[in-house]
Specification:
With about 170 residues, this protein is mainly β. It is built from one helix and 13 strands, in the order ββαβββββββββββ.
Length: about 170
Amino acid sequence: MIECPNCRHKELPGTLFCSECGTQLTGASDFSTLTIQRGLTGQLDEVIKKVPQTAEPPTSITATVSLYIMDSGQILPLEGRTEFTLGRSAEGQPILPDIDLAPYRGYEYGVSRLHASITLGGQQILTTDLGSANGTRLNGQKIPPHKPYPVNHGDIITLGKLKIQLLVRR
């Protein structure tokens, strides 16, 4: 286990950021970069040239922006509007989020009922924490509530401890 030098929280080996305080843990592990022998890269180039490049990965999603729920492997397309609230439904709750994360163990992961929002605007996508109890992180860094932050393809948005990757197809 790796111990965060800031808050002393225990993390798994290889973790880059503390899940509690967001401190970068890159210097905390004993892992090192391996050097690839030069001769192997030429062989790899030859193998890549032989692979047909015409096939595209199959996809049934036509949305240009989607959310990839990392623990479940589920992809949720964002279609039909320009702003989406993310949260979890609860019994007797009068206001429901646009994207309900309850089926993805939202309660267990600490997702608030109305946790965050994603706004699709022109060339920019923004995420905003809606004053959630357990906070929102963008690529491991905690973001303050009610302040929109730009997000890009591949960014990881963490609601409580539920990790969601933003997928943008242009």
